[in-house]
Amino acid sequence: MAFAVAPVRPPKGLPRAQAGSSGRRSLSNNLKAYVLIIPALVCFALFSWYPTIKVFFLAFEKTSFSVGGNHFGGLVNYRTLMADPQFWPAWRNTFAFTGIALVIGFGLPFFVAVLLNELRHMKQAFRVVIYLPVMIPPVVTDLLWKWFYTQPSGLFDQALGAAHLPQSGWYQSSNVALISIVLITTWANMGGTALIYLAALQNIPGQLYEAAELDGASLWQRFRYVTVSQTRFVLLMLMLFQIIATMQEFNEVNVITGGGPGSSTITVLYLIYKYFDQYYNYGGACLLSAMLVVFLGIFSASFLRLTRNHG
């Protein structure tokens, strides 16, 4: 982020030499700021902006190994995607996953942060415990939970059996496989989100709670009108980030379910991976990627526009 220093207009009566010196210093500061951000701009251009723009061109190319590369294919990739029986289930599962994750994974970290903020002892220890899952490599987390879910020797089914409760199919059942993946992502990412919420909660002035209590506000009213109100901007931004992240769900599907059972857990990003790595249809993978980029771009712009007065 560049911090450009606006030119300073010298006050009336200031000597011309001193005004010129001030202008030169302002120009020098601006040049230094722009020079410092050049490496960041180059990195963004090479590794983010250029690949994103290139995807839209590759979406109209067809991969042909017989002619030794790609050639213009027009709408052939679009027709291929529309004819793919996994295309619509991938979008449906992605939206369902995002919705379930928003219900389970958005409110839970905020609730945990509120509890941590109210603790009087061992705050640091509980923060470390909450953040530990974030430090575990994602593949290790997925394999650990896959063992938890395995029937009938997994930890969860053993616990259910010890309690004389019916065992669940977990990721082996198309009815609960998507929810099982949501539980993994919530557990793995909750710690970082909770700490961000905690930082926002600790910036709320205590006088607001005291004033609300003096006015006779109940516990729920203090939570609604003080806690939520003062952290609204953070809540909205993290909601946007979570929606963008869950729309790109891949790791758990790739490691645990492989898109199954059937097509019950296949997501858009996993279908992109299949087109690229299994079907060798690079144009189709790029077209699907472009669709996801366009959707997320439109959604993000609309979300920011609708919530700009609520931060």
Topology of this protein?
Elements: H1 16-58, E1 61-64, E2 69-72, H2 76-83, H3 87-105, H4 107-118, H5 123-135, H6 138-149, H7 155-162, H8 177-201, H9 206-214, H10 219-230, H11 232-246, H12 251-257, H13 268-277, H14 282-307
Antiparallel strand pairs: 1-2
Describe the structure concisely for a colleague.
The chain has 311 residues and is an all-alpha fold. The protein has helices spanning 16-58, 76-83, 87-105, 107-118, 123-135, 138-149, 155-162, 177-201, 206-214, 219-230, 232-246, 251-257, 268-277, 282-307, and strands spanning 61-64, 69-72.
**Strand order across the largest sheet:** 1-2
**What's the Cα radius of gyration?**
26 Å
Main beta sheet, described?
2 strands, antiparallel
Could you tell me the CATH topology label of the largest domain.
Answer: MetI-like fold
The number of helical segments is 14
CATH class placement of the largest domain:
Mainly Alpha
CATH architecture of the largest domain: Orthogonal Bundle
- Portion of residues in beta strands equals under 5%
pLDDT below 50 for ≥5 consecutive residues: which ranges? 1-6
Shape: globular
CATH homologous superfamily label of the largest domain: MetI-like
Give the domain tally: 2
Mean residue pLDDT: 83
- Helix coverage percent: over 70%
The computed structural class is mainly alpha
Distance from first to last alpha carbon? 21 Å
Number of strands: 2
Order of helices and strands: HEEHHHHHHHHHHHHH
